[in-house]
Model the fold of this input.
Amino acid sequence: MIKLLLKYTMYGVAVSSMFILIGLILLDLFWQDGFYSLTQDFAINIIGGLAISTVASMSGIVHEFDNLNSGLQAVIRTAIVLIVALPFALGLGWFSSASPIAIVIGIAVWLLIFAAAWLGFYLFGNLEVKKINAKIKAHDSKD
Done:
């Protein structure tokens, strides 16, 4: 189990950290006071992003439990990440204000991005399954 956690962490931290960094830069450029506010607390923002991405990567262990269907696995993983990410985001000032509307909009945008990613994984998986089935069918027809 520890090896699996390390595997998920190593695979996911680099990629998700890159997305966190790009997200912070875009957030700063388009929704706050410009690039200066990000660079002031750059190290703290990166450490927060790394903490969130580490938890997001480690939560992939949920997919090793075959007794849970994939939809439930995605919901559990989303909940874990959201429960960890929201306090970090609030504490690091990633929301323009701590108003409930800003928080709800931030969560909604995050959920939309997460849903789009899962939809992409689902569609890609289905495409791969169709390719494999076509190869199997072609192989079977030769026999």
